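Milestone M4 deliverable, item 7.
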Amino acid sequence: MSDRPYHHGDLRRAILTAALDVIAADGPSGLSLRDLARRAGVSHAAPAHHFKDRTGLLTAIAAEGHGLLAAALRDASDLRDAGVRYVRFAREHPAHFQVMFSPELLRADDLELTTARSLSATALTDAVAVGAAGREDVDARLARIAVWSLAHGFATLLLGHNLDHLLAGENPEEMFRELPMGVFHSA
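Output delivered:
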């Protein structure tokens, strides 16, 4: 037992931050609550107080990520802008991005997660509505699928370094903005 009194401040945030660092470096499989406790300088049982277990921690990360994604998509000016914002989110939050779309790692019925997922889905739907406004030829559901698929696929390839040779040093967000796709044409 340590001579110093237990006081950590915001242990939940410290554990989340440490977990995001581990995931960014080693992926979700490298995550251990015991290791995170050691990094935070707390007992091995302390993280369980906030997250119960590893699945709870990953679910909290996914929920936080969906909240951040919703904020990133909010006020997108059109479909292309929504896609660029999605790619930017993935670049700025790669650990969140990786966990958010790995349902096998999460508690699907977690209220915080389902609420945050709903927020990010609504933000994407709103961006599609703005982009499709006044266009009879755009099926909003198909546009949402197309935008999400293209942006998610691009972001996934980007984070996996599969586009490095094609980007040739160009800004990935600007390259995404230039992708030719009929659904992005403004009315």
